[in-house]
Design goal:
Elements (H helix, E strand, L loop, with lengths): L4 E3 L4 E3 L5 E3 L7 E9 L6 E9 L2 E8 L3 E8 L2 H6 L37 E5 L23 H15 L4 E5 L9 H10 L4 E6 L2 H5 L1 H10 L2 E5 L5 H8 L5 H13 L4 E4 L1 E2 L8 H10 L3 E8 L17 H11 L10 E2 L8 E9 L2 E4 L6 H5 L12 H10 L9 H10 L11 H7 E7 L9 H4 L4 E4 L5 E3 H6 L2 H11 L1 H10 L6 E2 L14 E2 L10
Helix pairs in contact: 2-3, 8-9, 11-12, 12-13
Length: about 525
């Protein structure tokens, strides 16, 4: 060359005069999409880029005041892109709770911009707890305890917006220590809500015989905190290294009365990720357990120090399941839940017959039923099977329920399972394993939250998507108001008078915790005053 040449070793261009000119180079990532997120420090809504790098998915964003942030979002970029085609069209609720005013995520309630109805409604009946876990997204502490009037109003509004709600979950705090929790469960069932869940750490169930009798009378499903078996796991995550025996006692007592339990392990990298397989083996054997919901630890409320670039994600746990169950379950057994964004959930069902474990996805091509893009013709399967599979692969599916057993049975018309099986046999031998990844301020993605189907219900008709409630500032404003109302609740109890329900309202643009409340009758159905 008599004009210039390329130095292959240092990647620089040499000009005629001998000077070196830098060469352009490709980025070490693929810019996949632009979305909106929040600043992890000041919670300002900002733009965010989704980047694919080294077959992982990252979120990169910059706050004008607080600077740049980056976090790992998903541990398998190929799956993140591939699964997006299973994004099922949303179902519109019968009514909305707020108007569009400030834009997402500041209009939650649900507003007309929300793209999915509520598969699951969550009512936090109290803020107090009989534990003090280092990892607690609710930051449980004494503050408020809802009245029957408030809970009934929230249930009625849930019925108003959903028509026939499928799942309600009572949470806290620790809901079992609320003196009226049994009445709350009965009130939900009286409104025709078929699947009523109680979220619990199991402490009261382990020791209170009278409470066990009461819970047997109303028979909810139990959403049971269970992070593993090692003392160190419980020391780090729950602050109680010797709590395992208490949890096992509670599970055995629930088995004695035939109640269904879903284990809920919070999985933190380098803490209990080595226990994933053992939790599954335990669930297969224990007579009370009908499901597991693995939740990668997310960092809102009260949490330990963490590195957002090393957070554990759904693909990481799926690989651990395959490694630690020696092939009983493999990554390909798990299917996205299409009602929310497909990478938020992953689930499989298995029929357990002694030591034989048969995942449904190995005997039915479930993906054929979830492909809403290609719309291919499936002459070998009936519409009933498709409906059954859509029901199973939904956030409203409850492990161990009669409905899920019936859907499983219909799905297996061509599966080769014994024809002599009854619905009861299937219910008693079916295990659901779900993985649910919640967002925190480091990973918050407005696109995902607009499709969220798990909503916190509040007095006054607001329904706040789970990840928005915990990350954007809704929880702080709601708690301030609910705590300020407690003096009036106590007064009503002392005077033996009905409690006047007051609505929780929000002003996220203001950014301050608001302690005032508004009488419920002043709130219009759309959430305006």
């Amino acid at each position: 060359m008599d004009s210039s040449n390329v130095d292959a070793l240092n990647g620089q261009l040499h000009a005629n005069d001998g000077s070196r000119v830098p060469m352009k180079r490709d980025a070490d990532y693929i810019f996949f999409e632009l979305t909106r997120s929040i600043c992890p420090q000041c919670r300002k809504v900002i733009d965010a880029k989704i980047l694919l790098r080294d077959n992982e998915v990252y979120m990169a964003k910059r706050c004008p005041e607080c600077g740049p942030f980056e976090a790992l979002v998903y541990g398998d970029a190929d799956a993140y892109v591939r699964l997006s085609k299973y994004n099922k069209p949303g179902t519109i609720p019968l009514a909305f709770g707020t108007e569009i005013r400030d834009g997402c995520p500041h209009d939650c309630g649900l507003c007309p911009d929300h793209q999915q109805h509520a598969c699951l409604g969550i009512i936090e009946v109290n803020s107090a707890c009989n534990m003090d876990c280092p990892l607690c997204f609710a930051d449980a502490r004494p503050g408020f305890s809802l009245t029957m009037e408030e809970v009934e109003t929230m249930l009625d509004d849930f019925v108003r917006t959903e028509g026939t709600p499928e799942v309600i979950q009572f949470s806290g705090g620790e809901p079992t220590i609320h003196p009226q929790i049994i009445d709350f469960v009965a009130a939900a069932k009286a409104r025709g809500i078929p699947f009523v869940m109680v979220n619990t750490n199991g402490k009261r169930i382990a020791h209170d015989d009278r409470f066990l009798e009461q819970i047997n009378e109303v028979r909810p499903s139990l959403y049971f905190q269970f992070d593993g078996f090692d003392r160190e796991t419980y020391r780090i995550i729950r602050g109680e290294p010797d709590i395992l025996d208490e949890k096992l006692r509670a599970l055995d007592r629930l088995a004695s009365i035939g109640l269904n339990v879903t284990l809920v392990p919070a999985i933190e990298r380098d803490v209990n990720d080595h226990e994933v397989g053992r939790i599954i083996e335990f669930a297969i054997r224990h007579p009370a357990v009908r499901g597991i919901n693995f939740q990668p630890a997310f960092h809102v409320g009260r949490h330990m120090h963490h590195d957002p670039m090393r957070r554990i994600t759904i693909p990481d746990i799926l690989r651990l399941i395959e490694e630690q169950t020696t092939g009983k379950f493999v990554v390909s057994d798990f299917i996205p839940v299409p009602c929310c964004f497909p990478t938020c959930n992953s689930v499989t069902y298995a029929f357990i017959d002694g030591d034989q474990v048969t995942p449904l996805s190995r005997i039915v091509n479930v993906y054929e039923y979830l492909d809403y893009i290609t719309n291919r013709v499936m002459p070998d399967f009936s519409l009933e099977i498709k409906k059954a599979l859509e029901g199973l692969w939904s956030s409203s599916s409850v492990s161990g329920s009669q409905k899920s057993a019936e859907q499983f049975a219909v799905s297996c018309q061509a599966c080769g399972l014994p024809e002599s099986l009854t619905i009861g046999d299937i219910a008693n031998n079916m295990l659901m394993i779900m993985l649910q990844d919640f967002m925190d301020p480091w990973t918050f993605n407005q696109k995902n939250v607009m499709k969220c189907c798990k909503e916190f219900l509040l007095p006054g008709g607001k329904q706040i998507p789970f990840c928005a409630y915990n990350s954007v500032g809704y929880r702080e404003q709601a708690r301030a108001q609910l705590e300020a109302m407690e003096i009036h609740r106590k007064q009503a109890r002392r005077d033996q008078l009905p409690y006047e329900v007051k609505a929780v309202v929000f002003d996220l643009k203001a950014g301050a915790s608001r302690g005032e409340s508004i009488p419920l009758q002043q709130i219009q159905p759309n959430g305006s005053r």
